[in-house]
Design a protein that fits this description.
Blueprint lengths: L3 H30 L3 H6 L3 H27 L3
């Protein structure tokens, strides 16, 4: 793989890794906020965690899609 396909693949890997990190950060943040129920409820509770994890999933799937496209269109 060379040229434009390799840069797309690398960008896909980067987005995939960012997605995994985003999901892990959302779960870690939720565990940290459970210690203070009032603060957790005031900052959105489980909805905040779901939205944060959802953004991570979008990055994960987008990265996977970029990697597949880069492999499909390699020259």
């Amino acid at each position: 793989m060379a040229g434009a396909a390799s840069s797309g693949f690398v960008l896909g890997v980067f987005a995939f890794l960012l997605g995994i990190a985003g999901i892990a950060a959302a779960i870690r943040r939720r565990r940290g906020r459970e210690r203070y129920p009032e603060t957790y409820a005031a900052t959105g509770g489980i909805i905040y965690t779901a939205v944060s994890a959802g953004c991570g999933v979008v990055l994960l799937l987008g990265g996977l899609g970029l990697m597949i496209l880069a492999l499909a269109f390699k020259k």
